Amino acid sequence: MTRSTERPAVTSLPTTELDETSALRHRLADQLADAGHIRTPAVDNALRTVPRHAFAPEVPAQKAYANDIVATRHSDDGRITSSISAPWLQADMLEAAHIEPGHRVLEIGSGGYNAALIAELVGPTGSVTTLDIDPAVTDRATRHLTQTGYDRVRVVTADAEHLPADVIPADGFDAIVVTVDTWDVPWIDALADGGRLVAPLRLHQYTWAVSLTKRNGALHSDDPLIVCGFVAMQGAGAWDSNRRTVPGTGVHLAWEDGTPLPVDQLGPALTREPSVAHTHVTVGGQEPFDALTLYLAGALPGFCRLSVDPAGDNGVLNPPPQHWPGAAIVRGISLARLATERISHGDDGNGVYELVVHGYGPHGHLAAQEMAEQVQHWQRNHRAALCPRITIHPLADGGPTPMTGDPHVFVKRHIRIAIDWPIIPGTAALLTDDEGRHLLHLRSANKPIWRPGQWALLGGNTEKGETCDEAIVRELDEEIGLAIHDLTGFVTLDTLNANGSFKDRVRVYHGTLNTPAHQIELREGIQLRWTRIEETAEMTMDPGTAAVLHAHHNTSEPPGSRDGTLPVVEVREPRDHRSRSIIGAHLVLVRDGAVLLGNRHPSSAFAPSTWHLPAGHREDMEAAVTCMVREAEEETGLRIAEGDLSLVHVLDLLDPGSTIPRVGLFFAPSRWEGEPTVREPECCTEWRWWPLDALPEPTVEYTRVALAAISRGTLYTPMGWS
């Protein structure tokens, strides 16, 4: 919802000629315009015309015109069930709806005041329908709309999950404005092609006001998201937080847009001091990082929200506020959550905080590192973006339905939501002099920065809302205090990890500078040096910088390109050429001639809807036999002592198309405690005993091969190598 710094062109009476409520109304509109919430004359006129106080007669006029909500109805337990929204948010949403004279508009969530504002926008040739499930709310709206002269607004009492057929125009509404917290979007068919939907959309308990346009049967966002809060949707569209409580701790975990995981096993993890994974990503004390939490919700399987009772008995340090649950993930008997540590007072006195991840339980450090790496990925590639792009398809549109485990895809009852995170490159400056030398900068080896202790180009990350052109100018000013006037785009540098997956993108600019290094004031880093290409072989070079220097040395064309696109230079992080194998531990549990197999979840990334042994991969600094004991308890609840396990088979496996071998170690226990139960429902739907001579279909092929080899008494089987 892009904001302008320009005031809309309006003509208003001097305050002295207005009565008290009119003066308050104009003062509020002035504030909203100054803050950029009002951006068009039409919305400005509506807010200056509709008497907000008439829709809130229970409160003084000063409160009615404050830039805050006015609660108008409460539930028996004191929760607000209906309110007049905050003026700043109403203005933003009305601006985003692009309502014009003659439009047909539906408001979901009534109250009267917002419908009157919409009526001013559509004018006498348009139509407004406001709908609410609560008769008391619609009665109130009808009364106040009539009293203020907006009785042409149609007020409907109905459940918004199922819009009455006679409410929807033949070719759909031009705009739908939703003013209740909605988990789902069942109204796509009610919207005309090209129409706008503005709604507070709820994802993993985070709520953002989103504005979308309908094109070809789907909704597409085109404005930044706005963090907001509304009263909850009631009726058939009400959402379930899927909250679970860790026994005896006062810690709650909610999987509102995911499969709930077991939590009973997490109690012991919360009695220990957490491990801390530092991200070296900082935020200001008043700086929101809601986009990060939305990114984590899609990037991390098993993502959930963590809240803590103030009086709960747990070892969680600095629990997040009860009204704002924290981002968390569960990994078996361990978990991790996003937290902050204050590192300075900040220039504004509000402080500067580092985003850190606290890990709990025996493998909490691994879960914490997993989340920290995603925070760093967001920082490098996505933080500078104004907003992600959201696309919403109805589930019944005949298109492919993604698995719920797909990154950044959320499947609801009626829709699937795909979130595309734009990659905003970092920037770097390839500065050369008339002698053909390159200006390189030695990075500190003792700071948590990209490529510490290596020679690299000047430059840095793009900040929120900046273009790359603006960012490189700012970075050069901060690092060497100079402006380079002939900067031109040269190449795009993409860094891939050792497996070929994208990791980082940098836009590299070329410019000329003929100042001796000792005359340049270096404000960041250790040293500057003018370097010839042949000298770089003897230096500890950032691989990306080395690739860019060689690209410049070998090119016969001027820097950049004529059509505005830049050539891409790819650099892959080095791989250790010594062979490495993934170690997996598999439990061969046989009782009365039958083996225990689990049916993999249909959304599992590995072998969906296929039968497999209890198994898992070895984690950091963990013996394979220890891995087997842990995986057995995490997946099945069975308790097995390491001394009761015997190695019965080794499978040496190379999957088709893979460059990383796998070694499967198959262990059989002489005894165990307990009966198998489904402890990880997101991975396995049931455990069942199958006769060894009648395995089910389909069974993982290498599992079948290994069991056959074990029955023959064979200890080692190579598979997939020929």
How would you sum up this structure, described in words?
- The protein is an alpha+beta fold and about 725 residues long.
- About 20% of the residues lie in helices and about 30% in strands.
- It has twelve helices and 37 strands.
- Strands 3, 4, 5, 6, 7, 8, 9, 10, 18, 19 and 20 form an eleven-stranded mixed β-sheet that branches. It has a seven-stranded antiparallel β-sheet with strand order 11-12-14-15-16-17-13. Strands 24-21-26-25-28 form a five-stranded mixed β-sheet, sandwiched between helices.
- β8 (about 205-215) and β9 form a beta hairpin.
- α2 crosses α5 and α7 packs across α8 (about 365-380).
- The longest helix has 18 residues, at about 365-380.
Write the layout of secondary structure elements.
Layout: H1 20-34, H2 41-49, H3 61-64, E1 70-74, E2 80-84, H4 87-97, E3 104-108, H5 113-122, E4 127-132, H6 135-147, E5 154-157, E6 173-178, E7 191-203, E8 206-215, E9 218-221, E10 226-227, E11 243-246, E12 251-254, E13 275-284, H7 290-299, E14 303-308, E15 326-331, E16 334-344, E17 352-360, H8 364-381, E18 389-394, E19 409-411, E20 415-420, E21 426-432, E22 438-442, E23 455-456, E24 458-460, H9 468-480, E25 488-496, E26 502-512, E27 527-531, H10 543-554, E28 568-572, E29 582-587, E30 590-591, E31 594-600, E32 611-612, E33 615-617, H11 624-636, E34 645-653, E35 662-669, E36 684-691, H12 701-712, E37 716-719
Parallel strand pairs: 3-4, 3-6, 4-5, 6-7, 21-26, 25-28, 29-35, 34-37
Antiparallel strand pairs: 1-2, 7-8, 8-9, 8-10, 9-18, 11-12, 12-14, 13-17, 14-15, 15-16, 16-17, 18-20, 19-20, 21-24, 22-23, 22-27, 25-26, 29-33, 30-31, 31-32, 31-36, 34-35
